[in-house]
Amino acid sequence: MQIKIVSRSGKSKNLPLTIDIPADATVEQLKQAIYNEVPKYYPDRQRLTINQLVLQEGKLLKDYDIKEGDSILFKDLGPQISWRTVFLIEYFGPILFHPLFYYFKSQIYGEDFRHSEMQTIAYYMIMAHFIKREIETLFVHRFSHSTMPFFNVFKNSFHYHALSGINLAYWVYGPWNAAGKRGSEREEWLLWTCMGVFAWAQISNFYTHIILRNLRPPGTRVRKIPYGYGFNLVSCPNYLFETIVWFTVSILTKSIAAWLFLAAGSTQMFLWAIKKHKSYRKEFKDYPKNRKAMIPFIA
Question: What's the rounded Cα separation, in Å, for the pair 174 and 30?
C-alpha cells in the first residue's frame, strides 16, 4: 500500500514523500523505508505520528488502523547519540574531577594539608559510586530508547560534571575539612554507619537494575511489570536507593554542595518516578494498586 509521509513543520525539502510498503509492515520497516529514500533521516532520528498517536517500534502499522493513502506526520528529531554513550560521558566527569581535587590539593587550594578521615572515606565512596555506574552502563542496562538528541548531552552532563563533579569535589576536599580542623572529625559510629548504609544502598540499587535488565530480552523493547526486591513497595526502588546513597554522603560530609546535589537529583528522580508510575498503571491493568512511585507508603 502507499502511505504519504508529511513534514509536521512543513519545512523539510525532502517531504512530502510517498512510500510503498506492505499492509502488514511494522513501524520499523516504515522507518527503514523512509531512511532508504532520505538517508539523512536514519530511523532513530524519526518521530512518526497519526491521529496524535506516536508510532511505537515493535508494532504493526495495522495496529494504528493505517490504510492505503493515509498521511503520517514526520518530525525530524535531529542528530542523535546513544543513551549508553551519554551515560558514559555523564559519569566520567566526576570520575575525572574528584581525583584531581583530591590528589592535587596543593595546586588547587594553594596549600598542602593532610586529608581527614571523613574526606578520605567520602572520596572512595563517591568514586565507587560512579565507577559502579559506568560498569552498569556497559554491562547491565538495556535501554528502551536507543538514542537521544545529541545536544541534550551537554544539558545532561552539567548535572554530573558541575554539581557532583567540580562543585562537590571542591568543597568536600578543601583545607577547611582537613585533618585537625575544627568540624572535620566524625564520631567512629557515624563513619561506620554511613559506610554501612552506603554499601547496602549501592548493592540494593545494583540488584534492582539487574531485575529491570532481566525483564527485557536482549534487542527488544519489551515492557513487563517488575516484581521482587524493592518493587513490592515502589515502582522505582532504583531511584529510592540512589537517593539513600547521596543522603549518606550528605550526612557524612555535612557539605552544602552534597545537600544541593541530593536535592537536585532526588527531585528529578521523583519526577521521573511519578511519570513511570503513571505509565505502568496506564499500560498494565493488573498493576499492583498498593505500590507508590518512589517513597514507600507515601508517594
Answer: 57
